[in-house]
Amino acid sequence: MPIDPTTRPGDFRTEEMILNMGPQHPSTHGVLRLEVTTDGEVVAAVRPFMGYLHRCFEKHSEHVSWTGVIPYTDRMDYLAAMNNNHGYVIAVERLLGLEVPERAEYIRVIMAELNRIASHLVAFGTFGNDIGAVTPLVWSFRDRELILDIFEKACGARLTYNYYRIGGMSGDLTPDMLEDVRKFLDYFEPRLKEYDDLLSYNKIFLERCAGVGVIPLNMAVNYGLTGPALRGSGMRWDLRRDDPYSIYDRFDFDIPVGEGRKGEIGDCWDRYMVRMWEMAESVKILRQCLAQIPEGEYMHPKTPKSIKPPKGEIYVRVENPRGELGYYLISEGKTSPFRVKVRSCCFTNLAVTPAISQGVMIADLVAIIGSLDIVLGEIDR
Amino acid sequence: MKEWVDGLVEGSSLLQSLPIEVSYFLAMVFFSLVAVGWMAICALFFVWLERKVSARIQSRLGPVYVGGRFGWAQTPADALKLLMKEDLVPESADRLLFNIAPAIAFMATLLTFVAIPIGNGLVIADLDIGIFFILAVSSLGVIGIIMGGWASNSKWSLYGGMRAASQIVSYEIPVALSLIGVVMIAGTLNLVEIGRGQAGGIWNWYLFKSPFLFAAGIVYFIAALAEVNRTPFDLPEAESELVSGYNTEYSGMKFAFFFLAEFANLFVISAVAVVMFLGAWNSFLPWQILPGPIWFLGKVFFLVLVIMWLRWTLPRLRVDQLMHTCWKVLIPISMVLLIGVGVQMWLFPGN
Amino acid sequence: MSAVKKYFSDIYNSMATVLVGMATTGRTAFRKPVTLEYPDVRWELPERYRGILHNRIEDCIGCLACARACPVNCIHIDIVKRGKEEYGVTSDGTKITQWIPRFDIDMSLCMVCGLCTEPCPTECLTMTKEYELAVHDKHDMYLEFALDRDKVMAEKAEAEKKAAKEKAAREKAEKEAAAKKAAAEAEAAGKEGAEPEKPAADAEADGKPGSEEKKPDAS
């Protein structure tokens, strides 16, 4: 290589390098592509590119029946399919003016909270893996399997459940399934302590996460962050309490927020820890559900066979494990929706990445992406 | 081993008929084959062990199928697969460097095997500068890693190579400083002599001879982990950040060389720790119950197990924290410990 | 002073938390593994498991409810009306009023959502517990259930044959008429002695029946 005559000793000409991180990279959580401008190990700028997992969910929905959209919603945030179903069926039921039986509501909450735990477990495991520890990943999947076993019994699938129906559920929760849930909770609570021992309070982990990728509260609000990313910045905002849907107003639970215990408020550790604490809160909700669940129908008996909501539009938002998932539906009174628009929590959460990852190191960038816990299936839809 | 060869030559009429250079050459070939074989066996065994250990820690079964019981043939099968794989060289790679890089990394590890005694006098080359030789030669491996990282012409590999350079060069210092304490007390660089000096019970092991050496042992262990790129210091590979670091572009046989060297390094650092701190081949009782090599290998096995246990427990440090750990923690501490050993020797001469 | 304190407490913390972590993983190492030796040992699938689709075609009445419910249109059904005397009965007593020459499910499109099994009036379309979906050939994912296919096909083929025969007969008649006309023209041309071969060559290119017709004329 010819030597550049303009460079002299002591007068180094350095250039920024453009690093293409993804779409095939172990820790971009799917097919996210980041165009990283780096100065050595230090990140100068990040530009996220997405669309590699775009499947035209919204357009597809205009051509299938109202019920047929439900399995499509499974495939958006595939780690929290129950929660996705929940938001959609609530929206359609409100369009129809349909009341859901008591028991179905309880089943819905049980499933949604179990799925929240499962989703947070994956977030915990993959975040650990991003930081470099492999064992949390395997442990979290080990314990998540038990939840998936319950789902499998209830609806027959382990990932894309398609369990919720407009007007109820596709099947009842039998007593032995409820017993499974109880057994899982008894098994799971001590595990939370183990996770903390293994990862949360490990000094190396703290060094990697505390004070890294800080999102101040005003920035979090300005960027429209929701879910653990917003709560990690110290805002006590949870739709389950602030805009209660389903029967969440009946339960007693806390909303954990980041307190900056190990670093600054809104750092990676806070976001991570909010998820860990939320799992404990979900366990609380589940225990109350199991105690209160009434007998009765699991499907509204007057659900019309072919669903044709009256003309109108509706926006419904629910608290997904990753944030606020909104469904905007327009009905023209036909058998399929006129328009389905999804307000994706991962999409907005990802948008904050370039703002907070200037001047961090590549390893921190991985931690930031991991702590935002994005699912590309929902970003691209 | 020169005496041994001389004795063999004297005893055998066939060898006597050959010129002495030829017999030495034959001996060299023989012992290098022994070293290569020993290294391959160690590496294959450790890969298998790592899989089993990680499996147990993660509530899994690990390999169970290949070879009937315990999946013992899994790693030979994998090695065979790697050897038979197509040898890919990226089009824009620097072919020459790309090809010799794994060989250098491999050679550096292989050479250290020459000087490690696994029993009393049971060593291929009984060097008077044994520990110095091991330190010097094992740091050659980083050249192979940097070369591989540079020659691949991939940005991820380059990052891995650069990280390896800064990391391994830095961590040489605490490794050497913590070993010097032992050398001071033992009064020799010869590994066999150091091993002999620890005979006669656990209290004679250098680790327990002095509190400073105990701490030095821990410092050595940590720094050595960093030197061979094991978690929590596996930054050059850092699969979640750098895809696979310096060996991203390698496949097949060349990857196998890197891989083999990496796992053989486990044996090297554990063996050095055992010889220097844990009484080499001596039992922890005043008398030797079992043959020396069994004790030696048992201790090495235990240390390797601990290293693997650590790997499957800990997350990874960041680059700046890695440097912080080395320059601001390990080096000052090992300096203080070195002075402490000196002071101890001055205060209690003859102990 | 606090910096010094922090320095040493950091060192202590890292050592202590590493040991705590190691204790946790060490304890787990002596627990029973949770994984199974999969191909040898299989877990029990629950009642509602959604595997690949299966249709008990003898109970299928061809109502098309499943094909309508399918969000990805992977069920293809053809139906042909049966005559009154041909009506069948399913195992639960429902009348079958149509032949089903085609009941195909393309499992490579199917997303195993189970929506098709819900509206099925005779519950003949079910999800099996078969979950190993991988096949060597893509076409093996195309499941064909129809039994009436041969019957309907045979009828169809018969009808087609009949139609073809009629058509052939009609064509022959047309050809003959055309040949006669051509022969008359050729005769007229032959009188002038210009090109007697050309019509014959044309006829040969037309096909056999035509050329056979022509032959006596050409010779």
* CATH architecture annotation of chain A: Orthogonal Bundle
Q: What is the gyration radius of chain A calculated from CA atoms? A: 22 Å
The CATH class designation of the domain at 53-147 in chain C is Alpha Beta
Task: Give the fraction of residues assigned to helices of chain A.
Answer: 40-55%
Identify the strand order in the major beta sheet of chain A.
1-2-3
* Helical amount of chain C: 40-55%
Folded structure, characterized:
Chain A has 381 residues and is of the alpha+beta class. In chain A, helix 5 packs antiparallel against helix 6 (175-200) and helix 6 runs antiparallel to helix 11 (268-292). The model of chain A has no long low-confidence stretch (mean pLDDT 86). Helix content of chain A is 46%, strand content 12%. Chain A has a single domain (67-346), classed as Cytochrome-c3 Hydrogenase, chain B, CATH 1.10.645.10. The N and C termini of chain A lie far apart (46 Å). Helices cover 68% and strands 0% of the residues of chain B. Chain B has helices at 2-11, 13-17, 20-57, 74-84, 95-115, 130-138, 141-151, 155-186, 191-196, 211-227, 239-242, 252-276, 292-311, 319-347. Chain B is globular, with a radius of gyration of 21 Å. Chain B has one domain. Chain B has 351 residues and is mainly alpha-helical. With 219 residues, chain C is of the alpha+beta class. Chain C has five helices and seven strands, in the order αβαββββββααα. Chain C has helices at residues 2-29, 65-69, 149-192, 198-206, 208-218; strands at residues 53-55, 75-81, 88-89, 95-96, 98-106, 125-127, 142-144. In chain C, the strands form three sheets. A three-stranded antiparallel beta sheet of chain C has the order 2-5-7. In chain C, a hairpin with a 5-residue loop joins strand 3 and strand 4 (95-96). Chains in contact: A-B, A-C, B-C. Chains A and C meet through helix 2, helix 5 and helix 6 of A and helix 1 of C.
